[in-house]
Design brief:
Blueprint lengths: L1 E2 L10 E15 L2 H13 L4 H24 L4 E10 L7 E13 L1
Parallel strand pairs: 1-3
Antiparallel strand pairs: 2-4, 3-4
């Protein structure tokens, strides 16, 4: 399954636009680790806890959108767009929502 943020795939022609597909992943952030991440934010530096949670959520959402595109008998998903949210304010959860268009290639 080809996934791309672009509207086309170099060297391939899109035969049909099948459907809009989407997926989401919600990752909890450990409260104790989140406290240290908050301290790191205050003093400067990278929050490895948050980075890990974001990476895991992105991977899960991308895997899920591929599965949903396969259900449409798609060959690819084009125009992938990732949205990231932290609905609980300063930590606790991170949400990654991804949308794209499932397509059939020639």
């Amino acid at each position: 399954m080809i996934v791309t943020t672009t509207a086309h795939i170099e060297g391939r022609e899109i035969a049909a636009y099948l459907d809009i597909v989407s997926a989401e992943s919600v990752q909890g952030i450990n409260v104790v680790r989140d406290l240290f991440a908050g301290m790191r934010d205050f003093f400067g530096g990278r929050s490895q806890t948050l980075e890990r949670a974001l990476k895991e959520a992105r991977i899960q959402a991308t895997d899920e959108i591929k599965a949903r595109a396969r259900q449409c008998n798609a060959d690819a998903v084009v125009g992938l767009d990732f949205e990231i949210s932290m609905p609980s304010g300063r930590g606790g959860m991170v949400v990654v929502f991804v949308t794209g268009t499932a397509v059939k290639l020639k």
